[in-house]
Structures are given as structure tokens and as C-alpha cells.
């Protein structure tokens, strides 16, 4: 069998204008979800180190459920399952943001817990001995140091969440993969189009990695 295939660079570059509209949706879903997930992560991360046992169990249940199930299943449940419970449809964009939020929130919870617990107990005791309340000690001494240490794992989670948006084409969100699928349906240049989709994802995550490294260095220097 004679197999003679050549990569069509012209077709790959021709797909770029059709793929570019998917980038804003990819960024909106990922960073919108991450912003919400960050606050969810702080809330449940602090519950994980609460002295109240049942609050720790509540946080642990949330974390285990959303870390232990695929994000694809989560977004399908939100988009197709929740409307049956609520009696009204959910917008695909909202479903995508919600899925990133609850999924990233579970991972960020553990990042927050680890960051706070990594601060030496002596720092808290020294703050209290200086007359600060527990809340003030946490706000002015513990949290700034913990946040600085959380920058690398938070950056990794951001990159993971950006790549996770590629799964949301199954619910019709017009992100990069969905735009590629639509274009492939008319040109049949699957290899070239998906190659450019991969390049665009790489460009986004690589740029974010550079920004995070700069932020990390500045945070450590500060």
C-alpha cells in the first residue's frame, strides 16, 4: 500500500483566522473559572485546617469528590444534569466556567492548606506575643508568606485549567477545539488544523509560564 502524505503548511496557516475567535472564549472560561475557583479554594482550604472537626470533613468531602471525578463528567453533569434538577437550561459558557471553578477550587483548596501549614508555628506565636489578634496574625503575617509560596502550584493549576477547556467542545462552547472541529468539517484538514490548535494552546500556556516565573521571582525577592 503506497502511503504518501505531506503536511500542508498552507492549509495549517489558512486555519488561523478561523481558530483565533476561539482564544477569547478559552481565556474567558479558564480565567473566569479560576478566579471563582481561587475564592472557593481559599474557603475550603481554610476549612481543612479548622479546629472544628465537622468543618474539616465538609471540606474534605468537597475536595475528594471534585478531585476524584473527571472534569469532563463534571461539565456534562452541570450542563445536562443540573437543568433537570433546576427545571431550566444552563448556558454552555456558564457551565464551562462553573466546571473550571469547582474543579480548580478543589485543587486550590489543598494548595491553600499546604501553603498556610508550611509557615512555621513560631511565626504565629511571635505575632500573638506582639499583641496581634489571631485574625491579624493570619492576615498580616501568615497569609502573605503562604501566598508567596503558593504561586508555583497555583500557576500549574492555571495551566491545567486552560488545557481542560479543550474538553468543553462536547457541550458546544466555541473555544479553540470547537472552532477547529467546525473548520475541519468543511476542509477535512484534520492534521493541519489540530496542529495549529496545539500551537495556540502552547503559545498561551508558554506565555503564562513566563509571566508566572517573573511573578515568582518578584514574590521571592519581595
TrEMBL record:
Main location: membrane
Entry-linked InterPro entries: AA_ABC_transptr_permease_3TM, ArtM/GltK/GlnP/TcyL/YhdX-like, MetI-like, MetI-like_sf
Gene3D superfamilies: MetI-like (1.10.3720.10)
Bilayer-spanning residue ranges: 25-47, 59-82, 193-215
Alphabetized UniProt keyword annotations: Amino-acid transport, Cell membrane, Membrane, Transmembrane, Transmembrane helix, Transport
Pfam families (UniProt xref): BPD_transp_1
Compartments, as annotated in UniProt: Cell inner membrane; Cell membrane
Domain ABC transmembrane type-1: residue ranges: 23-212
Matching PROSITE patterns: ABC_TM1
Function: Part of the binding-protein-dependent transport system for glutamine; probably responsible for the translocation of the substrate across the membrane.
Stated name of the protein: Amino acid ABC transporter permease
Organism: Halomonas citrativorans
Amino acid at each position: 500500500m503506497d502511503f504518501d502524505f505531506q503536511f500542508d503548511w498552507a492549509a495549517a496557516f489558512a486555519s488561523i483566522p478561523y481558530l483565533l475567535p476561539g482564544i477569547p472564549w478559552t481565556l474567558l472560561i479558564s480565567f473566569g473559572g479560576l478566579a471563582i475557583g481561587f475564592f472557593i479554594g481559599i474557603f475550603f482550604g481554610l476549612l481543612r485546617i479548622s479546629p472544628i472537626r465537622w468543618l474539616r470533613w465538609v471540606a474534605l468531602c468537597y475536595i475528594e469528590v471534585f478531585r476524584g471525578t473527571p472534569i469532563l463528567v463534571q461539565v456534562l453533569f452541570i450542563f445536562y444534569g443540573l437543568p433537570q434538577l433546576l427545571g431550566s437550561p444552563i448556558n454552555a459558557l456558564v457551565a464551562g466556567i462553573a466546571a473550571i471553578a469547582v474543579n480548580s477550587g478543589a485543587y486550590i483548596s489543598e494548595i491553600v492548606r499546604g501553603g498556610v501549614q508550611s509557615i512555621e508555628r513560631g511565626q504565629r506565636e511571635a505575632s500573638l506575643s506582639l499583641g496581634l489578634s489571631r485574625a491579624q496574625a493570619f492576615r498580616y503575617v501568615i497569609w502573605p508568606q503562604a501566598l508567596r509560596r503558593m504561586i508555583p502550584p497555583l500557576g500549574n493549576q492555571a495551566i491545567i485549567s486552560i488545557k481542560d477547556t479543550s474538553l468543553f467542545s462536547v457541550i458546544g462552547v466555541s473555544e479553540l477545539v470547537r472552532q477547529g472541529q467546525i473548520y475541519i468539517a468543511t476542509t477535512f484538514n484534520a492534521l493541519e488544523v489540530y496542529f495549529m490548535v496545539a500551537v495556540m494552546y502552547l503559545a498561551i500556556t508558554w506565555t503564562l509560564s513566563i509571566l508566572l516565573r517573573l511573578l515568582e521571582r518578584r514574590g521571592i525577592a519581595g
